[in-house]
Amino acid sequence: MFNSAILDVAIGMTFLYVLLSLLCSGLKEYISQVLDLRGNTLKKGLTNLLDAEHVKGLYENSLINQSGKKNDDPDYIPSRNFVLALFTTVLKPEGGTLPTETKGLVEALKASDFGDTKAGKSVSLLIQDAGTNLEKAKTNIEDWFNGEMTKVSAAYQKVANIIIFVIAFIVCASFNLDSIQISEKLLDNSTMRNLLVQAASNPDQNVVKMISEANQAGNSGAEVKNIFQQVEQLNLPLGWKQDGAWTCKGMTWGEFFIKIIGLLITSFAASLGAPFWFNLMQKLLNFRSALKPQKQETASQ
């Protein structure tokens, strides 16, 4: 017979990981906005694609800087806007009219200072590859741009993952969020365990949904506040001081090593993201619901 206590502990831990992941995600988004991480990563990617001088001119184009304010760098550039902005920036067409034929575009590019750059030569080749089809030429350049943006997205995600792991470890270390210790406490304490399962499965008090809605609305302050309130109501064994005594006092090196492992497990779990743990939690809840009729049927027999 499957141990229902172990299943409830798994549900409780996944619920805790959902809350922690949402908290770390909210803090990461706040830090990203303060540091303008997306905008800076995009600008760095464009500088690798073009060069600093032409990126500066590109950012002054109204198709890129739609607010019209200086130093208001975008977080995202549509590929078609990039193509049109690039042509108008480097070619500087008289009257604002671009050549309507691929041959004219290539000649204009070669006559510009951009034409001698590595990027300019690549753009010329992409246009020539399209023959006389101007739309295909633009599509070729869009694909070239999107290829670089894939690298930019990967670079941003790499930095974001590091940030969220560091945030998670700081939070875990601050509040003693030790997965090993918490899971042991849940296994020994049925009241605490049932409270977590109820919080995870109660649709009328679905705090995960409430927090997600706050996150989608861009209200990270409300999101963080709701998470802390929810965690406080769970009465988990958090913090380094319990019953007036420091939990780390008198630890052996072996116990300290296990503590670090427990904190790292929680930090890594939080870095996997709320969607991963929420989906797993739902599967565990469905499995738990499927076990109930079987238990009732066995008991009636």
What does this 3D model show about the protein?
With 301 residues, this protein is mainly α. The protein has two domains: 4-35 and 155-294, no CATH class; 37-152, no CATH class. Helices cover 74% and strands 1% of the residues. The chain is built from 13 helices and two strands, in the order αααααααααααββαα. A two-stranded antiparallel sheet has the order 1-2. α1 packs antiparallel against α13 (274-300) and α7 (134-175) runs antiparallel to α12 (253-271). The longest helix has 42 residues, at 134-175. It is elongated, with a radius of gyration of 27 Å. The mean pLDDT is 81.
Annotation, overall tally of beta strands: 2
Structural domain count: 2
What's the end-to-end separation, in Å?
A: 16 Å
Rounded to an integer, what's the Rg over CA atoms? Answer: 27 Å
Shape label = elongated
Order of helices and strands: HHHHHHHHHHHEEHH
Mean pLDDT: 81
**Biggest sheet, open or closed, and with what strands and sense?**
2 strands, antiparallel
- Beta percentage is under 5%
Structural descriptors:
about 300 residues; mainly alpha; 2 domains; two-stranded antiparallel ribbon; 13 helices; 2 strands; about 0% strand
Please give the structural blueprint:
Layout: H1 4-35, H2 37-49, H3 52-59, H4 79-91, H5 102-111, H6 118-129, H7 134-175, H8 179-188, H9 190-201, H10 207-216, H11 220-233, E1 241-242, E2 245-246, H12 253-271, H13 274-300
Helix pairs in contact: 1-7, 1-8, 1-9, 1-10, 1-11, 1-12, 1-13, 2-7, 4-7, 5-6, 6-7, 7-12, 8-9, 10-11
